[in-house]
Amino acid sequence: MAIAWVASRSGTLGIPVVPIPGTKRVSWVEQNAAALQVQLTADELAALDELAGQVVGARY
Question: CB of 45 within 8 A of CB of 8?
Fold first, then answer.
């Protein structure tokens, strides 16, 4: 869900956003790639956006 949310940020931010998760296992790479096919609902995006707004500290 986190990867799908990050990918959805392109529309909100108006710039291309590409999630780059690190992994060591092929099965996780496949799961990460499959997350790009997930379509979150408006309610799900709103809930995740609200949670993201609660994050404190620098993000790089």
Answer: yes
